[in-house]
């Protein structure tokens, strides 16, 4: 990388000008700001104690020395204590020639054998996936891709929450009012059918609570006396005791949910290397609770429930086992962490879970630290913000969520309508047109969600996401298709440059140079996104790249350029841009249609 050579040359220049002994780590080299002429900027203020000169004089002396030592630098400008270096056109053209056809550009080789376990999705089998799950899945899938491209061996895992009181609520409602309904008899996906009974339980439960309150009972007392809730807890107890009839119904309904989830995952384009089930991991969690009790880390209340007291650490007491011996979410998460460590010995365990679970993961890590588990420090909660709609927040129990399948279908339909209206689907036979509408619709959905910093809450508006102009997925996809069309024409005309083509001696137009500069930083963008666990960095980068290429394309002829060398240079730039756009979209899980 040129930055390393620049740093070495700067160190040498400082020694020659002012003597040895300067701590190079104090020197900052950064990309020059857009509004200022220059390509690299050195901040010279840390040098003033050594140079004993003004910022302007120090920067000017250093600039003159670097101009002599590095042929890539054509000139420099000094603004107070900032030395702005201007690179020669030959520098940019050389970079383009050397990298435009490198498949490995921006892909880092495996850095270590230490694995990163990345958990995302984590659905409950009492309801179908919704818009919030979509953000979770897209973040997990994209970040797994980004970390892999950055040289980390990633294990993508899913923890299915297939047991617990919520699942028992759906089971109870089905037992009482299901009348043998199945996905086949109802024509509903299995996960949606189960979600129907989860909502029905909540409706009946609220009616029961209302009746009890009208009889003079407090709301808290009503919750304890609710027959429906008592029955649901009894189902949970029976399940943990292995009651055959209860377990058989649980297996049947969970099977429906799994089939439904798989359909949604396939359409969304996400996958996993390993799927864990809470019904398998909670027993390991119970063993850890027993271990913690024996070590005195946990304590048992009079009703036989087991808790951890974190009041001395500014938190509160956390339940780990109920008085009837049944487990809670924390129990299974303790067990899951242990099992994953045993399976993979990862260097990091990253959980993609919404920010409403911040407390949960704080407690999880503290418990494992108190149990002296070696993997406790490696646990990291990627806490993402909620997705809201223009009409407000979604609630699963009340059935006011945006169903993931319905949303994807809506995106497909909207993409089809808009693409046809704009005349961008001409010449596509039926099946190809359907694939195009799917790619555009889901590309719009994925980009709209991933371009937002995951830690921020976001408002999702489907209408805004599908637009062939502006910061959207379809705009970037269309730019890629436009470049691909140009490359295809050049290929037919036998004008594409060969793999080993080297060009020299040309002057760059501003939009050419800006596009090449944007291409050069792609590896750093991927690395930064991996370091910060933030796919929005890649998303917004590829949008800016598409914008710069479009400006270049509008201002400068490519195929109509009469000078063969310039024509080849611009085709190289086009091939390179298409490659980086495709790679960037792939990191976001977005398809790149060859034509639109």
Which labels suit this protein?
596 residues; alpha/beta; Gyrase A, domain 2; Rossmann fold; 3 domains; 4-stranded antiparallel β-sheet
Gist?
55% of the residues lie in helices and 11% in strands. With 596 residues, the chain is of the alpha/beta class.
Detail the topology: elements first, then pairings.
Blueprint: H1 2-18, E1 28-31, E2 40-43, H2 48-51, H3 55-69, E3 73-79, E4 82-87, H4 89-99, E5 116-119, H5 131-149, E6 154-160, H6 165-177, H7 183-186, H8 190-214, H9 219-225, H10 227-240, H11 244-268, E7 274-277, H12 278-295, E8 299-300, E9 306-309, E10 317-321, H13 329-344, E11 348-354, H14 358-370, E12 379-384, E13 387-388, H15 404-421, H16 430-450, E14 458-459, H17 462-465, H18 473-492, H19 510-520, H20 522-532, H21 536-555, H22 564-587
Parallel strand pairs: 5-6, 5-11, 6-7, 11-12, 13-14
Antiparallel strand pairs: 1-2, 2-4, 3-4, 8-9, 9-10
Helix pairs in contact: 1-3, 4-19, 4-22, 5-20, 6-8, 6-10, 8-11, 12-13, 15-16, 18-21, 18-22, 19-21, 19-22, 20-21, 21-22
CATH homologous superfamily caption of the largest domain? HUPs
If strands are numbered along the chain, what order do they take across the biggest sheet? 7-6-5-11-12
User: And the CATH topology of the largest domain?
Assistant: Rossmann fold
Rg over CA atoms, rounded to whole Å, is: 30 Å
Strand content: 5-15%
Low-pLDDT parts are: 392-399
Given the structure, what is the number of helices? 22
Total beta strands: 14
């Amino acid at each position: 990388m040129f930055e390393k050579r620049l740093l070495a040359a700067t160190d040498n220049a400082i020694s020659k000008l002012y003597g040895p002994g300067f701590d190079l780590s104090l020197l900052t080299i950064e990309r020059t700001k857009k509004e200022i002429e220059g390509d690299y900027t050195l901040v010279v203020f840390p040098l003033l104690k050594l140079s004993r000169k003004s910022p302007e004089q120090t920067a000017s002396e250093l600039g003159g020395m670097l101009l002599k030592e590095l042929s890539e630098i054509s000139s420099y400008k000094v603004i107070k204590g900032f030395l702005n270096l201007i690179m020669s056109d030959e520098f940019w053209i050389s970079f383009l020639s050397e990298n435009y056809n490198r498949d490995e550009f921006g892909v880092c080789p495996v850095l270590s054998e230490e694995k990163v376990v990345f958990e995302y999705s984590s659905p409950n089998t009492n309801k179908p996936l919704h818009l919030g799950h979509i953000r979770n899945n897209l973040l997990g899938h994209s970040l797994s891709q980004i970390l892999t491209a950055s040289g980390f061996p990633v294990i993508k895992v899913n923890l299915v929450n297939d047991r617990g009181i919520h699942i028992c609520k759906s089971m109870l409602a089905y037992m009482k009012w299901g009348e043998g309904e199945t996905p086949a008899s109802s024509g509903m996906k299995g996960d949606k059918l189960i979600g129907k009974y989860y909502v029905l339980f909540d409706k009946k439960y609220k009616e029961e609570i209302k009746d009890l309150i009208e009889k003079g009972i407090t709301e808290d007392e009503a919750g304890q006396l609710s027959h429906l809730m008592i029955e649901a807890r009894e189902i949970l107890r029976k399940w943990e005791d292995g009651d055959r009839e209860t377990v058989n119904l649980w297996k049947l309904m969970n099977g429906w949910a799994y089939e439904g989830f798989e359909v949604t995952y396939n359409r969304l384009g996400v996958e996993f290397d390993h799927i864990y089930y809470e019904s398998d991991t909670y027993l390991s969690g119970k063993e850890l609770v027993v271990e913690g009790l024996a070590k005195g880390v946990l304590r048992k209340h009079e009703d036989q429930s087991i808790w951890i007291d974190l009041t001395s650490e500014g938190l509160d007491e956390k339940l780990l086992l109920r008085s009837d011996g049944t487990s809670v979410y924390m129990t299974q998460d303790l067990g899951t962490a242990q099992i994953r460590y045993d399976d993979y010995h990862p260097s990091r365990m990253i959980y993609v879970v919404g920010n409403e679970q911040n407390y949960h993961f704080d407690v999880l890590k503290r418990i494992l630290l108190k149990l002296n588990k070696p993997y406790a420090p490696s646990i990291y909660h990627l806490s993402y913000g909620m997705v809201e709609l223009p009409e407000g927040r979604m609630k699963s129990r009340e059935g006011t969520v945006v169903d993931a399948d319905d949303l994807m279908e809506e995106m497909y339909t909207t993409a089809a309508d808009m693409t046809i209206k704009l005349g961008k689907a001409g010449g596509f036979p039926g099946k190809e047109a359907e694939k195009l509408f799917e790619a555009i619709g889901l590309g719009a959905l994925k980009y709209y969600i991933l371009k937002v910093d995951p830690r921020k809450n976001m408002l999702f508006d489907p209408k805004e996401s599908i637009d062939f102009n502006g910061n959207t997925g379809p705009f970037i996809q269309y730019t890629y298709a436009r470049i691909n069309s140009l490359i295809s024409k050049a290929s037919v005309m036998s004008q594409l440059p060969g793999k080993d083509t080297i060009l020299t001696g040309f002057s760059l137009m501003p939009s050419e140079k800006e596009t090449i500069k944007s291409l050069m930083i792609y590896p750093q963008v991927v690395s930064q996104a991996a370091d910060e666990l933030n796919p929005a960095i890649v998303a917004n980068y590829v949008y800016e790249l598409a914008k710069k290429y479009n400006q270049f394309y509008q201002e400068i002829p490519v195929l109509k350029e009469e000078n063969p060398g310039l024509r080849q240079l611009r085709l190289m730039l086009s091939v390179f841009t298409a490659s980086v756009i495709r790679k960037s979209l792939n990191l976001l899980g977005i398809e790149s249609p060859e034509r639109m």
